[in-house]
Amino acid sequence: STIQKRRIQPLRTTNEPTIQVWSHEITNSGAPLVLLDLLRQWKQSGQMPSNISFNYPNSSREDQSLISSLKDEGINFKPYHMAEVYFNKGDVVILNSTAQPQQLYEKILSGLEDDTIEHLYFYIHEDDETTTGVTREYSNRIKKLIKGNKITIYTPSDQSNNNWKKHFKETNNIHSMPGHVTFHKGMFKKRSAKDFNTINFIIAGSREPRKGIISVLNALATVHKYHIQQNPDKYRDFTLTIVGDDHKNDFHNRF
C-alpha cells in the first residue's frame, strides 16, 4: 500500500509512556529553530529523558543536512505518516507551531479527551487566531482541555500571550516564553551620524506571501514613487533586507 511504501519504521516499539515531540517541519526557519534551541538546552542540561521521540509529518518540508547534523547531536527526527501515529496511556506531547496536519490535531485532542495522553505542551508561534485556521476549528475543544489542565500553551511574546488568552477566554495555563537570543561579541557597535543617511529596513521571516512581505514592498514602493521621487532632497534613501528561508531559491515562484 501507499502507506507501507512511505513507512520509515514503527513510531512505537514499546507500550510504556513516552514523550513525543512534534515539529511541523525540519528546516532553518522560525518555529523549528526555536524548538531546536529549546531541545539543545534541554539536552545540554543533562535532564532530557531517554523515553523521548522526535517526529515530523512526512509530507512537510525537510532539510536533510539539518536532519543529519541533528542526528549527530543525538536529536534524531523522523518523518511519519499520520496513519502511523498513536499514543500510549500516560504519553506527554510537545507540539511546536499550529501548522500541523488536521489528522494529528484529531489524534492528539482525542487522546487528551479520553485520558490516553497525560498532557500537551503547545508552543503557538503565531500572533493570534486569524492566521491559524486549524486552531480556530478546534478552539472549543482546546479551550475545554486548557480549563481541565490537560493543555499548557506557550507563546513567544506578551502581546501574543494576551491575544490567545482573549481568544480562549482563559488566563491559566497560557504563558509567555520568548525565544532565546545569544549575543555575540561585535554585534553592537557605536554609530555615527552618517550611518543614518540611509534607513535600513529589515524584515525577518521566511520569504513567502503569508509573512506580509508583499504588503511591505507595496508600501515602500508607494513611498518612493509619491514622496521620495517628488521631493528627493527632503527624504533619505533606504534599503530593504529580508532575512529568512528562501525555500531553496524558490522565492519568486511562491508569490
Task: Explain what this protein looks like in three dimensions.
The chain is an alpha/beta fold. It is 32% helix and 20% strand. It has helices at 2-6, 30-44, 64-72, 102-113, 133-137, 139-147, 158-168, 213-228, and strands at 19-23, 52-57, 77-80, 91-96, 117-123, 151-155, 174-176, 198-204, 237-243. The strands form two sheets. Strands 3-2-1-4-5-6-7 form a seven-stranded parallel beta sheet. A two-stranded parallel ribbon has the order 8-9.
Give me some keywords for this one.
single chain; 255 residues; alpha/beta; 7-stranded parallel β-sheet; two-stranded parallel ribbon; 8 helices; 9 strands; globular; disordered N terminus
Task: Describe the secondary-structure layout.
Layout: H1 2-6, E1 19-23, H2 30-44, E2 52-57, H3 64-72, E3 77-80, E4 91-96, H4 102-113, E5 117-123, H5 133-137, H6 139-147, E6 151-155, H7 158-168, E7 174-176, E8 198-204, H8 213-228, E9 237-243
Parallel strand pairs: 1-2, 1-4, 2-3, 4-5, 5-6, 6-7, 8-9
Q: Helical element count? A: 8
Instruction: Measure the end-to-end span.
Output: 35 Å
Radius of gyration (CA) equals 22 Å
How many runs of DSSP E, i.e. beta strands?
Answer: 9
Characterize the largest beta sheet: strand count, sense, and whether it forms a barrel.
Answer: 7 strands, parallel
Q: H/E series, N to C? A: HEHEHEEHEHHEHEEHE
Mean pLDDT: 86
Which shape, going by the Cα principal axes?
Answer: globular
Structural class: alpha/beta
Overall helicity: 25-40%
| Strand order in the largest sheet | 3-2-1-4-5-6-7
Low-confidence stretches: 1-10
Q: Which percent range describes the beta-strand content?
A: 15-25%
